[in-house]
Design brief:
A hairpin with a 6-residue loop joins strand 1 and strand 2. This protein has no helices and 3 strands. It has a 3-stranded antiparallel β-sheet with strand order 2-1-3, with no helix packed on it. It has strands at 2-5, 12-14, 34-37. The protein is mainly beta and 50 residues long.
């Protein structure tokens, strides 16, 4: 599953809403800024891309 950051840059990260992304961002801090998606992962940080 992937999660999209809707507020700032629209990047898609590995992970899911209500948890941590592959690169370590906590999506529970501002849950309204995140949504689950099936889009391709666009974050290039370690943990998301590989």
């Amino acid at each position: 599953m992937a999660v999209e950051h809707t507020e700032h840059n629209g990047k898609v990260h590995k992970g899911f809403k209500g948890g941590n992304t592959g690169c370590g961002i906590d999506t529970t801090e501002k849950p309204s800024h995140w949504k689950d998606t099936y889009k391709s992962i666009s974050c290039n940080k370690d943990g998301c891309k590989n």
